[in-house]
């Protein structure tokens, strides 16, 4: 047993083995998110990613992520990892999913020379364009308005002291809504950290707890947020993402909203 296997208590490990077969090795992933601990697990049936959360809010997000993956069945498959198992203990939740090829776009960009960076951003734009243009899948359908729900959730996080945004900003966001656009499938946390690259192409979303039907301008804002002051990267993105180009004000609005999550 490695140190990692020791660290994972026997309860989750046994459940894991029920779903994925006998464990051969468990390693902490080099790239870690902020909300969970991510391990790569090799078993007799293949290689998986095990994402574990202990904080109650992040456990809830992980439960929703598991549900998104689990319901991704049928013919119109979304480009997201495959569900393997989800297990809730008293002090932690654990999601087991397929380990997908490649690296995050963030990691790919770090390693790429300038011309390749442009190609990666073009690919990111194309990938997001295709996703926003697809007819929404049934399993993401929900009642109510996406923005209303996000603003209400922001208020709740703020009241509980779980959010970095401030009350004045939230009041402005509530007052200054834009005219609605046609709602599409959205990823909901569409940064370069949450898309995977293989063979030079962006091809998959990870971290999908926010995936729903909502305002595509939110995805667009998060996708370009880090590149707005780098036209040599922004322009290639828009060669791929040709369906709409958000205004400065729309960008600021959606970045403001993101501060609460
Ligand atoms: N299915 C997968 N296949 C391969 N690698 C993955 C997979 N899921 C996650 N990873 C790796 O684990 C890292 C963290 O995953 P993820 O973004 O889901 O975690 P997180 O804690 O939710 O992050 P965040 O703080 O952004 O919410 C990713 O950067 C990626 O390197
Ligand atoms: Mg992430």
TrEMBL record:
InterPro entries: AGP_Transferase, Aminoglycoside_PTrfase, Kinase-like_dom_sf. Residues 31-244 form the Aminoglycoside phosphotransferase domain. It comes from the Bacteria. This is Phosphotransferase. It comes from Paenibacillus soyae.
